[in-house]
Design brief:
By secondary structure, the protein is of the alpha+beta class. It has a single domain, classed as Nuclear Transport Factor 2, Chain: A (Roll), CATH 3.10.450.50. The protein is 22% helix and 42% strand. The chain has three helices and six strands; from the N terminus they run ααββαββββ. A six-stranded mixed sheet has the order 2-1-6-5-4-3, covered by helices on one side. β3 and β4 form a beta hairpin.
Length: 152
């Protein structure tokens, strides 16, 4: 199901994607620091999390990562990553995947059992892949158009 363009000429995007998966696991365990280390610090980076809205620029993205991590209770989670496709170019790469996780929330208290549709875009900066965009939303299944059509 995965399509991978020849990556031999570029730094290993697969290794960066694996580090990203481990950082998502840490975030769901309440620790945003591994995720923060993967991000570019340039002004054009963007984060769109499953709760809506978006953040642009490192200070706003960092705040979003801290807020997301604070919403999870440490020690009770599971994550599964299902890659759909990946493409690597000379200085940009992306991965599209489904992330499935079960985690305990801090507020409101309870369990979150989500499947998220995730797109991550990476840029080559000083010989390393850095995250420049991450969008995650719960729309993993086909949604009919009719419920969103309104008469005017």
């Amino acid at each position: 199901m995965s399509h991978v363009m020849a990556e031999a000429a570029y730094p290993d995007l697969a290794e960066t994607i694996e580090r990203t998966h481990r950082s998502v696991e840490a975030l769901v365990d309440g620790d945003p620091e591994p995720q923060k280390r993967l991000w570019s610090r340039r002004d054009d980076i963007t984060l769109a999390n499953p709760l809506g809205g978006f953040r642009r620029g490192w200070p706003a993205v960092e705040e979003g990562l801290d807020g997301a991590a604070a919403g999870f209770r440490a020690g009770s989670w599971s994550c599964v990553f299902q890659e759909v496709t990946r493409l690597t170019g000379s200085d940009f790469g992306y991965v599209f995947e489904i992330e499935r996780f079960d985690a305990q929330l801090t507020a409101p208290e309870g369990s979150a059992d989500w499947a998220l549709r995730v797109t991550m875009i990476f840029r080559l900066e000083e010989g390393r892949w850095k995250l420049v965009h991450r969008q995650a939303d719960p729309l993993t299944e086909h949604q009919p158009l009719e419920p969103s059509i309104h008469d005017r």
